[in-house]
Write a structure and sequence with these properties.
Length: 238
């Protein structure tokens, strides 16, 4: 039973989790500018009286801004359409919908290297997904392809590509979380310092980070599977 479960995880579950991880990573990178404009973002500024009126729970309608690593989207109120900036590795966020009293300068984009490293991670992850899937199903392929996939060099290369993709991507998102987390704290502190005269806005980190953490949790399964295979092979050859 354990052997059958292990085989099912390696052959079917691990590639499926890897594919899901890739999709979630792409959403976290491309949103909100290219897709899911008002649903997924790394940082969100939304209307709220919580900072200007202590303990207030009243509903407020006003401007909203959705910020990602490649650009931003904004709308003037809850019923307005969403307008997005052009996709760029060095984006200029559109904060024109926010009132002049809001601390807009605190909402700056990270360095251009952040999206570049994220793109590299996704590229390596895609290559790992293809190689891992082919190696897992090599027994179903006949002829020269099966022989080539049985060579020990390919699983080793696949595992290292996956590890590099995992580490680069996770590190990039951790740095972005610290960057935008600090922006959220400073933005909210500046509004709270203005008291009741401050704009009715509040900043928060977005659900794109949740997507990223889930993506790399899923990514860990095929990585562990690949490294375990290498360890077993090395032990046999020792």
């Amino acid at each position: 039973m354990i052997a059958g479960l292990s085989k099912a995880v390696t052959l079917y579950l691990a590639p499926l989790l890897m594919l899901t991880s890739l999709i979630l990573s792409l959403f976290a990178l491309l949103a909100p500018t290219l897709l899911l404009h008002d649903q997924v973002s790394l940082l969100m500024v939304s209307p709220s009286a919580a900072l200007t009126q202590s303990g207030s729970t009243k509903g407020v309608d006003g401007p909203s801004v959705f910020i990602g690593v490649l650009g931003s989207c904004a709308r003037t109120n809850g019923a307005a359409s969403v307008n997005c900036t052009a996709l760029s590795i060095s984006p200029q966020y559109d904060l024109s919908v926010l009132p002049s009293s809001s601390p807009n300068l605190l909402l700056s984009a990270p360095t251009a290297s952040a999206p570049v490293f994220m793109a590299i991670s996704i590229l390596l992850s895609t290559l790992f997904f293809i190689m891992f899937t082919l190696i897992s199903f090599r027994h179903k392929m006949g002829g020269k392809i099966s022989v080539m996939l049985d060579k020990p060099l390919l699983p080793r290369a696949s595992a290292w590509i996956g590890c590099f993709g995992f580490l680069i991507g996770l590190t990039s998102f951790l740095i972005l979380r610290m960057w935008f987390g600090k922006a959220v704290q400073d933005f909210n502190a500046s509004i709270a310092a203005q008291g009741q005269q401050g704009p009715e806005l509040i900043a928060s980190t977005g659900n794109a980070f949740t997507m990223a953490w889930v993506a790399y949790a899923f990514f860990a399964v095929p990585i562990i599977s690949s490294m375990t295979k290498l360890n077993i092979t090395a032990a046999k050859n020792a």
